[in-house]
């Protein structure tokens, strides 16, 4: 097509419908990741389910649309657009409840998100699949090949626009409900345009009804009771869903539906989550805590650790936090204040370490979530880079989320093996009496050390750290068996496979001041053969508690 022909080109109504169907189908596919992630995470299995369902639904729609193409008309396409918009309203209103219902199905963890994706996005994507063969039938092009090629090109261009606009503009700017509402309006507007210039009463009335349904669905919000507390702040960032929720005097940061950090509003310096106390163990392993000058945290969250280090020690704290919205939320809701001693770098942690010429006495890796782990931060090459950026007696700590033994421990044992490959000496600490999935602190020293619990206990008594770590020292784990797990490298880091057994298990985050924290209910049904709940370990130092199988846990 010449430039003159291109400028003179005016799309027909069917061609416009094909373009819009491409925009909305790909936009919904990108949006699906955000809707599904809080319940099922955003692992390769979740995205595999999303891509599989969308491709299968579109293929089925193409096939059925091709069989019925001889009956194609603008009015029929108008009804298809309206039907799709109506289902989008259902997704806006009932997505949370549908996700909970779908998560109750007894499926293996890696397939758990498949029913939810199918229920929420299968029907609208199937309907949109009818548009292309209908448009090809109504095309003014000569020949089947030219007509089909023209339709494929328009649909693909629409998909590019939908993917780009949703990824780079809509998600960072609008909430999920508003994006769904926008797609619904676009579909209704296209459906209405297909009936012009003749204004038929039935499509017109249906268009008005669907618009009202969309507005009501977005206005009322998802039909689900939020048991977590009062939502103080919620946004969709470029990387995840972020929520700040108050439950009494405790404020919690949720990232993609998972608890990440917490603060006591009445006593802000208190460690609400037990595992954050372990961030101070490196100060027992350095030669002299008074000589510690530079500390790096990779991952900010609610900035509990960085704020604590700045407050307790005379050190410079750098924080590499990739998501600027996380830092903004910490400043607005978790009392984070940057200063000459605490600097936030909006940058990927590995990239920051690679580019900096500063060495650190302590590096804390706190960027993992239960179902979402940045794979490039788990690999041997990153661990070796961290080791190079430490001072001679420097200490590295990784906050790993996994079970300490048995089912669900594969990721911890592989991460321990990888860290131990990069560092001379490695230690680990459990943070809960339960043998369920929990925060496990893996600590490694650049120097060749052989600390015993007694030696660390003596240092804890003699060093004025402003925090008593005697209880944390008692939770030392024995060296795990790593024969059946790989060292994670750039060439081979099967993190999703290693985490597969943890997806459906309870995640225990112990809170200070509680006698015993019950496991957080799993959001996905647990397979009967996987021990989901185990009895508390009688003593924390007994690290090989025998798991007791239980019934599947669902909500």
TrEMBL record:
Catalytic function, reaction form: S-adenosyl 3-(methylsulfanyl)propylamine + putrescine = S-methyl-5'-thioadenosine + spermidine + H(+)
Subcellular location: Cell membrane
CDD domains reported for this sequence: AdoMet_MTases (cd02440)
EC nos: 2.5.1.16
Pathway connected to this protein: Amine and polyamine biosynthesis; spermidine biosynthesis; spermidine from putrescine: step 1/1
Lineage top rank: taxon: Archaea
Biological process according to GO: spermidine biosynthetic process
Residue span, PABS domain: 207-449
Binding-site residues, S-methyl-5'-thioadenosine: 240, 321, 348-349, 374
Gene Ontology cellular component annotations, sorted alphabetically: plasma membrane
PROSITE patterns: PABS_2 (PS51006)
Active-site residues per Swiss-Prot or TrEMBL entry: 366
Pfam name, any one: Spermine_synth
Record-annotated membrane-spanning stretches: 16-37, 44-65, 77-99, 111-131, 151-171, 178-199, 205-225
Entry membrane topology: Multi-pass membrane protein
Single Gene Ontology MF annotation: thermospermine synthase activity
Keywords attached to this entry: Cell membrane, Membrane, Polyamine biosynthesis, Spermidine biosynthesis, Transferase, Transmembrane, Transmembrane helix
Known function: Catalyzes the irreversible transfer of a propylamine group from the amino donor S-adenosylmethioninamine (decarboxy-AdoMet) to putrescine (1,4-diaminobutane) to yield spermidine.
Subunit structure: Homodimer or homotetramer.
Family recorded in the similarity comment: Belongs to the spermidine/spermine synthase family.
HAMAP family cross-referenced by the UniProt entry: Spermidine_synth (MF_00198)
UniProt name for this protein: Polyamine aminopropyltransferase
């Amino acid at each position: 097509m010449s430039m003159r022909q291109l400028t003179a080109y005016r799309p027909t109504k069917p061609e416009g419908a094909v373009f819009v169907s491409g925009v909305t189908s790909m936009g919904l596919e990108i949006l699906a990741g955000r809707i599904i992630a809080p319940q099922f995470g955003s692992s390769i299995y979740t995205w595999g389910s999303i891509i599989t369902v969308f491709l299968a639904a579109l293929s089925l729609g193409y096939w059925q649309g091709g069989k019925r193409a001889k009956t194609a008309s603008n009015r029929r396409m108008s009804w298809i657009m309206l039907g799709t918009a109506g289902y989008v309203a259902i997704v806006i209103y009932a997505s949370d409840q549908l996700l909970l219902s779908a998560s109750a199905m007894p499926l293996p963890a890696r397939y758990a998100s498949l029913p939810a994706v199918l229920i929420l996005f299968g029907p609208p994507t199937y309907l949109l699949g009818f548009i292309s063969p209908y448009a090809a039938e109504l095309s003014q092009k000569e020949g089947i090949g030219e007509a089909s090629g023209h339709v494929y090109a328009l649909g693909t261009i629409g998909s590019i626009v939908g993917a780009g606009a949703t990824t780079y503009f809509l998600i960072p700017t609008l909430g999920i409900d508003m994006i769904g509402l926008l797609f619904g309006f676009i579909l209704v507007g296209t459906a209405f345009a297909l009936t012009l210039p003749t204004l038929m009463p039935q499509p017109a009335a249906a268009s008005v009804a669907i618009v009202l349904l969309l507005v009501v669905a977005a206005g009322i919000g998802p039909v689900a009771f939020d048991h977590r507390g009062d939502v103080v702040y919620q946004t969709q960032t470029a990387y995840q869903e972020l929520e700040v929720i108050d439950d009494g005097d405790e404020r919690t940061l949720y990232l993609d539906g998972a608890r990440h950090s917490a603060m006591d509003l009445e006593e802000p310096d208190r460690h609400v989550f037990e595992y954050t106390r372990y961030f101070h163990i490196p100060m027992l392993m350095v030669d002299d805590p008074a000589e510690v000058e530079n500390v790096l945290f990779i991952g900010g969250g609610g900035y509990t650790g960085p704020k604590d280090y700045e407050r307790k020690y005379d050190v410079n704290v750098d924080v590499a936090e990739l998501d600027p919205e996380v830092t903004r939320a910490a400043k607005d809701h978790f009392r984070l204040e940057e200063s000459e001693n605490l600097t936030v770098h909006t940058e990927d942690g590995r990239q920051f370490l690679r580019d900096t010429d500063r060495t650190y006495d302590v590096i804390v890796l706190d960027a993992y979530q239960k179902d979402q782990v940045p794979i490039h931060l788990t690999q041997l090459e990153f661990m070796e880079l961290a080791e190079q950026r430490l001072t001679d007696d420097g200490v590295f700590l990784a906050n790993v989320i996994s079970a300490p033994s048995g089912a669900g421990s594969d990721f911890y044992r592989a991460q321990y093996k990888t860290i131990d490959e990069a560092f001379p000496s490695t230690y680990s600490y459990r943070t809960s009496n339960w043998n369920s999935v929990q925060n496990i602190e893996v600590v490694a020293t650049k120097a060749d050390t052989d600390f015993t619990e007694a030696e660390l206990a003596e240092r804890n008594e003699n060093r004025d750290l402003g925090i008593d770590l005697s209880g944390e020292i008692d939770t030392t784990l024995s060296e795990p068996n790593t024969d059946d797990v790989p060292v994670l490298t750039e060439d081979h880091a099967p993190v999703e496979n290693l985490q597969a057994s943890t997806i459906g298990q309870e995640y225990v985050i112990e809170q200070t001041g509680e006698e015993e924290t019950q496991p957080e209910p799993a959001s996905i049904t647990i397979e009967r053969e996987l021990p989901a709940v185990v009895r508390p370990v009688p003593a924390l130092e007994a690290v090989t508690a025998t798991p007791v199988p239980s019934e599947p846990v669902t909500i």
